[in-house]
């Protein structure tokens, strides 16, 4: 009974019609559009490698030559070294 209620409508299909479409000729030149840019005087925005930094390297002071400023001085006596330290503290 249920099968007799179904109607078998025939679907008529027509062959696909080809339509003419203009070929893609590329993007338009940006010279036609006005460009307004704000002058960027902030030097910190020029280069940034913050996304690539994993950790900072620190120079260990123990057992390494030329770590502090006084390592560049010639061999000094204790008196001469004291004078150099006093000079550095006065002129900081």
Automatic annotation (TrEMBL):
<protein>
    <submittedName>
        <fullName>Ribulose bisphosphate carboxylase small chain F1, chloroplastic</fullName>
    </submittedName>
</protein>
<dbReference type="Pfam" id="PF12338">
    <property type="entry name" value="RbcS"/>
</dbReference>
<dbReference type="InterPro" id="IPR024681">
    <property type="entry name" value="RuBisCO_ssu"/>
</dbReference>
<keyword id="KW-0934">Plastid</keyword>
<keyword id="KW-0150">Chloroplast</keyword>
<dbReference type="InterPro" id="IPR024680">
    <property type="entry name" value="RuBisCO_ssu_N"/>
</dbReference>
<dbReference type="InterPro" id="IPR036385">
    <property type="entry name" value="RuBisCO_ssu_sf"/>
</dbReference>
<feature type="domain" description="Ribulose-1,5-bisphosphate carboxylase small subunit N-terminal">
    <location>
        <begin position="2"/>
        <end position="42"/>
    </location>
</feature>
């Amino acid at each position: 009974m249920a099968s007799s209620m179904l109607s078998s409508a025939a679907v008529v299909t027509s062959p696909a019609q080809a339509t003419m479409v203009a070929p893609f000729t590329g993007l338009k030149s940006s010279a036609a559009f006005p460009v307004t840019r704000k002058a960027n005087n902030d030097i910190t925005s020029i280069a940034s490698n913050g996304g690539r930094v994993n950790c900072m390297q620190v120079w260990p002071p123990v057992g390494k030559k030329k770590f502090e400023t006084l390592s560049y001085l010639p061999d000094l006596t204790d008196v001469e070294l004291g004078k150099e330290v006093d000079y550095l503290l006065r002129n900081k």
